[in-house]
């Protein structure tokens, strides 16, 4: 009997193979929403890609202009400051206004759409703090 049990265990899948990021992972509706093949293939509107990459395009333009005016050191210094500011984050279940990034971009004096309609108390993304932290650390 012991040989038969050993051979069954040998042919079975180990527990480490079946992890959250493993082969048998299902689609997480709470975190990723419903899947749609159409959304993965084409944007819904011609301007969607432009709007999605607006901040990136604006940063590239500003860095190119800054390089032409002040030299290569100015955009490099600014990119280094952006990276340093983005590394400092709050816990994943706490809302962050990203004030330092807004100051570096010059958006701290502007009132935009997200300033008025981005109230964290009305957010649909609320979750259990322990679960969210475990997901961020890769434990879940």
TrEMBL record:
> What Pfam families does its record include?
UMP1 (PF05348)
- GO BP annotation list: proteasome assembly
Record has Chaperone as a keyword: yes
Q: Which GO terms describe its cellular component?
A: cytoplasm; nucleus
Q: Which UniProt keywords apply?
A: Chaperone
Asked if Isomerase is a keyword of the record, the answer is no
Name the family. Answer: Belongs to the POMP/UMP1 family.
Q: What is this protein called?
A: POMP protein
